[in-house]
Amino acid sequence: MLYHVKMDVKIPLDMPKETADAIKATEKAYSQELQRQGKWRHLWRISGQYANISIFDVDNHEELHTILQGLPLYPYMSLEITPLNRHPSSIKEDDS
Amino acid sequence: MLYHVKMDVKIPLDMPKETADAIKATEKAYSQELQRQGKWRHLWRISGQYANISIFDVDNHEELHTILQGLPLYPYMSLEITPLNRHPSSIKEDDS
Amino acid sequence: MLYHVKMDVKIPLDMPKETADAIKATEKAYSQELQRQGKWRHLWRISGQYANISIFDVDNHEELHTILQGLPLYPYMSLEITPLNRHPSSIKEDDS
Amino acid sequence: MLYHVKMDVKIPLDMPKETADAIKATEKAYSQELQRQGKWRHLWRISGQYANISIFDVDNHEELHTILQGLPLYPYMSLEITPLNRHPSSIKEDDS
Amino acid sequence: MLYHVKMDVKIPLDMPKETADAIKATEKAYSQELQRQGKWRHLWRISGQYANISIFDVDNHEELHTILQGLPLYPYMSLEITPLNRHPSSIKEDDS
Amino acid sequence: MLYHVKMDVKIPLDMPKETADAIKATEKAYSQELQRQGKWRHLWRISGQYANISIFDVDNHEELHTILQGLPLYPYMSLEITPLNRHPSSIKEDDS
Amino acid sequence: MLYHVKMDVKIPLDMPKETADAIKATEKAYSQELQRQGKWRHLWRISGQYANISIFDVDNHEELHTILQGLPLYPYMSLEITPLNRHPSSIKEDDS
Amino acid sequence: MLYHVKMDVKIPLDMPKETADAIKATEKAYSQELQRQGKWRHLWRISGQYANISIFDVDNHEELHTILQGLPLYPYMSLEITPLNRHPSSIKEDDS
Amino acid sequence: MLYHVKMDVKIPLDMPKETADAIKATEKAYSQELQRQGKWRHLWRISGQYANISIFDVDNHEELHTILQGLPLYPYMSLEITPLNRHPSSIKEDDS
Amino acid sequence: MLYHVKMDVKIPLDMPKETADAIKATEKAYSQELQRQGKWRHLWRISGQYANISIFDVDNHEELHTILQGLPLYPYMSLEITPLNRHPSSIKEDDS
């Protein structure tokens, strides 16, 4: 099942650069592992923002929640979640 | 170049059903032709809404505008457009 | 899987009363059939509003969309959908 | 009488983990006691958010206020309260 | 139990004056009867607006809903409802 | 002249409890003195919020401003002020 | 006593030009009479908008309401009203 | 040329009282000098708020910007600026 | 003096195509004449919207208002106006 | 390709003046270099705000993102990005 997730990241201005870099590196590894598993199907950066738009393909709400809560940047994010359906006009196999 | 487009459709309540059906059929054909050309890369319905989220892959703003303005449902839509970049953590070939 | 749905109904002021009454009667039957099937798990009116809050228990986004789109009052509604998870502190069996 | 309550929790980023964990444990016990008493009738997590949706069944506004103000996480929450009525189309005994 | 209700009235510009006057007269009688019964405890006009702020004293949500839905101007109103408690600093007998 | 005032209080999370308690005690005395003088005509708590709705009966804007600015909790409040008129349908003597 | 009033005018697109012109002429006369009486102390157009900002100097809310309700364009306006006080730093005699 | 400016002031709660008082005193002198020069034509306090509404009469945007940026409280303010025209119905000489 | 203007156009769905085309043709001629005069300095379409962003270079608010009010599409537009200053970091001669 | 970018700057009140001045000086040099290269085509200050409106002319979203992310003030900014097309009514050579 597909979910559209918008993640806005706001790292506190006073977090030491090394701490921030370490969190971001863990985040990257975490994200890439989920991409390899096919759970995190798409990941795009919003131009000019510290924000991304992602498409998740998971079994249910529970799995989505567990994945999002596990994001190393989760405490610094605000999230918007939109359930997606296959569109009756889509001809793409991977749009559902 | 990628653009994230959210389309909300509001067909006037007093439009005759046949007119609406004809417009929707043209819209579907138009959309599928653009999908076949690779310009309209993804198309998802937002659950429970007469709205979709789409990813377009076009040469520039001009091409995007021409495509959107050509939508048979364009007069009944409100549109939100967000430019997308490849995300540095993406490992997907088709995310850019 | 659970979804929280808020439905706001706005029937056009110039719709004949009999038409409105007929739609509402069909809506009621449709809703009660889904309640009997266990799909529409809860249904409450928001005090003082022509609006309700509902909890749906369906297999996936697709089933939710089909049910909502089938509502006789759907053309006159605006809908807000929120996916729900079991809460780790809940002790109720029927909260998931 | 039923009330729909949405609770958004925002724990300060600099609260020590032990303090936060202690508050959350007390919150859980407090919530489960009220569930056992039948006052806190439903409790769901909003997917991907540190937020919940709850249905309270209490005698009056006063009792609701006392319960909410007693929440160990109350100082870190923002709350939205919506009074609910039995819906004329509901066939569920426990929807009022 | 007390409820704070804000009512904004928007009568369609093309409603004949006599129809509007008739509805308003019925509304006035309806409101005054409820004031006499003590259900509609306060009623103020918002300066410069076709809107009022009211305090209702009713047994429960159900009674409030029935009263509001019975307002002759109800189809032309938008309503905001806020449950009120006695304030611990109030010394007025009639503030609860 | 009547004014409807909504006060939302947000005391900083790091204010020592004794300081907060002292301010609240002064606030209570200040409010009750004004109630006794008839200036602060009604005072209700909004259920589940650290907020109140008040009706002031003062000579003019100036007096209202002086009273509000004198509130011990004023630095921690946000305020919304709405001038009120007697409603033509009110039958209550004390609604103006 | 001073009130800041922002008036936004939205005349229906299908009102005949002569009707609109007649209403506007009456509005102008009404406004100028009130200016001569000193009740409508200032009147400015917002650049590029069919909207104005006005300062009224009236005895009380009641008088303000009566004046505003009497505006020939009142049915086509939305109004925002803000009570104003003399500012402690003002040196202008006519700022109160 | 006239500009309508709304200034909302939010002084940090932890600024020492003497610092705040010193800034406010400088602000007052600065404002009064500009009033004497005729640049700051009107200045009113919004009732119950730490905010004002001002009318500036300056040569151009540049002069307005220089004046506002020079306000001692500028770092603690949020500002809304609205260009004003003479209103065709105004009969006041000093409304342009 | 420079003004940033955002124009959103909403032509009623039931306006006959010829009427709309005639208005748009007049609008184009009007706009191009002002561009030739140097008053309408820049004009861009917002991608995917029936909306534009324009920079006007006029003598004062009055001239801006007269130009905007004269737009053939003015009755169907909503407008946002922002005064602009030369930026201290600009090196462009034509940015002021 | 053209992008309209609105930048709002909020430097923390407790940043030492020398630090802020150093960042601003670097920002100015960075901006002027990009103006010389023709990438940052226009730059205006919004009157009365610590904010600017800019027009960028870059090859694609990627180049825009890289430029914006490189702004020395980027961590203190919020950004709004709007893709722009040549307007069919524009007669200016440099509007595309």
Automatic annotation (TrEMBL), chains A, B, C, D, E, F, G, H, I, J:
Pathway(s) served: Aromatic compound metabolism; beta-ketoadipate pathway; 5-oxo-4,5-dihydro-2-furylacetate from catechol: step 3/3
Superkingdom to which the source organism belongs: Bacteria
UniProt GO MF annotations: muconolactone delta-isomerase activity
EC numbers: 5.3.3.4
GO terms classed as biological process: beta-ketoadipate pathway
Key words, A-Z: Aromatic hydrocarbons catabolism, Isomerase
Stretches assigned to the Muconolactone isomerase domain: 1-89
Reactions mediated catalytically: (S)-muconolactone = (4,5-dihydro-5-oxofuran-2-yl)-acetate
Any Pfam family: MIase
InterPro entries: Dimeric_a/b-barrel (IPR011008), MLI_dom (IPR026029), Muconolactone_d_Isoase (IPR003464)
Family: Belongs to the muconolactone Delta-isomerase family.
Subunit-level organization: Homodecamer.
Protein name as catalogued: Muconolactone Delta-isomerase
